[in-house]
Amino acid sequence: MKAFKNPALALLGLCLLGVALNFSVNAYIQLILLFAGVNCLLSMSLNLVNGYTGQFSLGHAGFMAIGAYFSAYASTRWSFAPSSLLVVQYFVFTLGAGLVAAVAGFLVGLPSLRLKGDYLAIVTLGFGEIIRVALLNMDFVGGPRGLSGIPGFGSFLWSFAFASLWIVICFFTIWRVMHSSHGRGFLSVREDEIAAEAMGINTTRMKVKAFVLSSFFAGVAGALFAHFTNFINPSSFTFLQSVNAVIMVVLGGMGSMTGSIVAAIIITVLPEALRPLQELTGVDLRMVIYSLSLVLMMILRPKGLFGDMELSDVWRKYVRRSA
Questions:
Q1: Residues 200-254: tens digit of each pLDDT
Q2: Closest by alpha carbon to 38, among 17, 54, 61, 15?
Q3: How many Cβ atoms from other residues are within 10 Å of residue 104's Cβ?
Q4: Burial code of 113-151, b = ≥16 C-beta within 10 A, e = fewer?
Q5: Mind spelling out the 3-state secondary structure of 172-216?
Q6: Hey, where are the domains in the chain?
Q7: Are the beta carbons of 130 and 58 closer than 8 angstroms?
Q8: Among 114, 146, 289, 317, which is most exposed with the fewest C-beta within 10 angstroms?
Q9: Which of 184, 226, 182 is nearest to 69 (CA)?
């Protein structure tokens, strides 16, 4: 459990895992694992809003699209580093993608987060669709054709290391925030907004802070997605992408970071793991089994896989107690 409290140790462990995967699995599985890393970022960032702050956002794909298009456009048009320092250039562009998405999150969140419940969901859903339609009509970013020729990281090992770096940054940033006074403010908004206001907490400001931080990491996830696929278009960031992120948060547990990670991996891997079934039966039953699995999971574990616990809590509650 030391890695759970040490970012450097966690990053080292992930890098060693990447080295092992680089020599043990084929390129198809490696690409699925990279997409799982993107979904981990997406689910953890959304968990900050939907899980910890108790709001309901359905526009996460919009912030992901902003980050993806910014990093893709910047990497294909601008270059400021030699080939030996391309990793630094990618990090700067990814960081810029997150900042642009955070600004968009602030502009959207400031007026909309005064709303609650279904009204907030409708507003964020509308924002995500506005972004997608706007990208369809912007010729300088390819319009409906999208952007192609986006440079990648050169190898799976570099891609996995870069994704691991941002996963560790996202996890420990949100972890530190939630164990600070800001985090207690987020939780107070989730538990009872009226009581929080009565105690002098500016609930709108707290919700906007959570929304901006969440948007930042959604933009980073979009940037990684663009560099992993080497091609993006507006159809990559539809309403279904936002719903997929919500499913990950709910399946993992509202308010559980490790739950979001585990759920993101399951949601990414399960449809691909069921693909051989189509070859055996001749019928595509993947989505049927996938949907049935989600229904059964919500019946058997209505609070999600981890509930509101983290991996360290599960370790202390079950493993150490039984030992």
A1: 888 888 888 999 999 999 999 999 999 998 888 888 888 888 888 888 998 888 8
A2: 61
A3: 23
A4: beeeeeebbebbbebbbebbeebbeeeebbeeebbeebb
A5: HHHHHHHCCHHHHHHHHHHHCHHHHHHCCCCHHHHHHHHHHHHHH
A6: 2-238
A7: no
A8: 317
A9: 226
